[in-house]
Design goal:
This protein is an alpha/beta fold. The chain has 2 domains: 136 residues, Aspartate Aminotransferase, domain 1, CATH 3.90.1150.10; 278 residues, Type I PLP-dependent aspartate aminotransferase-like (Major domain) (Aspartate Aminotransferase, domain 2). 40% of the residues lie in helices and 15% in strands. It contains 15 helices and 15 strands. Strand 8, helix 10 and strand 9 form a beta-alpha-beta unit. Helix 8 runs parallel beside helix 9 and helix 13 packs parallel to helix 15. The longest helix is centred in the last third of the chain and has 22 residues. It is globular. It starts with a helix and ends with a helix. Bound molecules: pyridoxal-5'-phosphate (PLP). Pyridoxal-5'-phosphate binds next to helix 6.
Length: 451
């Protein structure tokens, strides 16, 4: 590896970063991370911090997960690649499908379709939903519903159902036939309603209104995150997702749960859907399925679709979707080891416990600092602070202040993620109670430094 002078001189010079302005990256180069251990990362200057971002909501088991590393290296030696396109398979892909079926049994999901990541999983789910209706003779069901503030990756299908203009405007026109429902976002919503239960009902009414306006027989699917992640950890009332399920059933609409963040324990339950007592028709997974160590994903499929596809004799059930890396044996081997560790460590339970501690500490910070307008969390290890210049006006805080807080928190030993006005916390699920304390102390220091 080149020395640190070389790396700093060339940082962002020959590489455009995702979700960043290339010119800004040149002027303000990104932090270069060179090491990871446990829940901590180290930068090029040797500064160590707790990674309260958890990689990117994916390194649930931390950076030192030996079984996943060993599985990857053993699989590279045994079979570094083979395709799962029609006619061939590989041993790791088969073994993983058996394990996933068991893992997702309580969600009613019995088949896996492998992908290379979250955006890919979303595309596959959107496509399978349309195809399901075509197989059943309802070819007119082509539209999609989704939530404002939802995040579903940045492929064109995913961006079309995405609920944040940052990922849409520069890439329009997007896919036609996508309609957005207000999110159950109590801090800001068009109904001016701050009661979570009442807001959930208003959003459900808006969804039903949109279904009737579009015509139910034109709608293929509703896609939603059980807890909205990248949009700022928007935690719906417990009645919301069950209400969506009821509407989908009433109008023959496929419910796609985007579990790319919420799958594998982050909410404190094994899946976000299970957290709300809902069985989706399709679930998109990725990220923590390999602890972030290998790009991999899986769409999990419910019996309703299984029955339609597997009993089709017309040929319309043949799947015209897939990726070179679908079922990659190294990714599948990583996922097998990762699932075993995830279950052995019961990281869902730790996510629930540490998540409750983190959320309660954040609420105390919210009372202490005028800059913290809203504190969101309470469902495992996914929390956010929405920053405002003053609580009464809810005016979003300026970028310079949020950057200064971010820097101060980093210097105090914690990496957090800034997305628009939100500070997002999604640490590894193996976090300890002491780590939670350290995160809260660093945040306190960061906010104090600008207050
Ligand atoms: C809910 C959700 N869906 C889809 C994606 C896209 O996943 P990827 O970045 O792996 O393509 C993400 C990424 O953060 C996500 O949070």
């Amino acid at each position: 590896m080149k020395d640190s002078n070389f790396l700093k001189e060339n940082n962002a010079r020959h590489l455009w970063h995702p979700m960043a302005h290339p010119a800004e990256s040149l002027n303000n180069p990104p932090t270069i991370i060179t090491g990871g251990h446990g829940v901590r990362i180290t930068d090029i200057d040797g500064h160590e911090t707790i990674d309260a971002v958890g990689g990117l909501w994916n390194v649930n088991l931390g950076f030192s997960c030996r079984p996943v590393k060993d599985a990857i290296s053993a699989q590279l030696d045994q079979l570094p690649y083979y395709s799962t396109f029609r006619g061939t398979s590989n041993d790791a892909a088969i073994e993983l499908s058996y394990m996933l079926r068991e893992f997702f049994a309580d969600d009613g999901l019995t088949r896996a379709f492998y992908t290379s990541g979250g955006s890919d999983s979303v595309e596959i789910a959107l496509r399978l939903a349309r195809q399901y209706h075509k197989i059943r003779g309802e070819a007119g069901r082509v539209k999609y519903l989704s939530l404002k503030k939802g995040y579903h990756g940045t492929h064109t299908g995913g961006a079309s159902v995405n609920g944040n203009s940052n990922f849409r405007t520069q890439y329009e026109p997007l896919m036609p036939g996508c309609y957005h429902i207000p999110a159950p976002y109590t801090y800001r919503n068009p109904f001016d309603e701050s009661d979570p239960a009442r807001l959930a009902q208003l959003c459900l009414s808006a969804m039903e209104d949109e279904i009737n306006f579009q015509g139910a027989d034109t709608i293929a699917a509703m896609i939603m995150e059980p807890v909205l992640g990248a949009g700022g950890v928007i935690t719906p009332h417990e009645s919301f997702m069950p209400g969506v399920r009821i509407l989908c059933d009433k109008y023959g609409i496929i419910l796609i749960a985007d579990e790319v963040i919420t799958g594998f324990g982050r909410t404190g339950s094994w899946t976000g859907s299970r957290h709300w007592g809902v069985q989706p028709d399709l679930a998109c997974t990725a990220k923590a399925i390999t602890n972030g160590y290998f790009p991999f994903g899986a769409v999990m499929i419910a019996e309703k679709l299984v029955e339609a596809f597997e009993s089709d004799t017309s040929g319309s059930g043949s799947i015209g979707s897939g990726y070179t890396y679908s079922g990659h044996p190294v990714g599948a081997a990583a996922a097998i080891a990762c699932l075993q560790e995830t279950e052995r460590l019961k990281v869902n339970e730790n996510a629930a416990g540490r998540g409750a501690e983190l959320y309660s500490g954040l609420k105390m910070l919210g009372e202490k600092f005028e800059l913290i307008g809203d504190v969101r969390g309470g469902h495992g290890l996914m929390c956010a602070l929405e920053l405002v210049s003053e609580k009464s006006s809810k005016t979003p805080v300026g970028k310079d202040i949020i950057t200064a807080i971010h820097q101060a928190v980093y210097e105090a030993g914690v990496m957090v993620r800034i997305s628009g006005p939100n500070m997002i916390l999604s640490p590894p699920l193996i976090l300890s109670a002491e780590d939670v304390e350290d995160i809260l102390k660093a945040l306190d220091y960061g906010f104090s430094s600008v207050s």
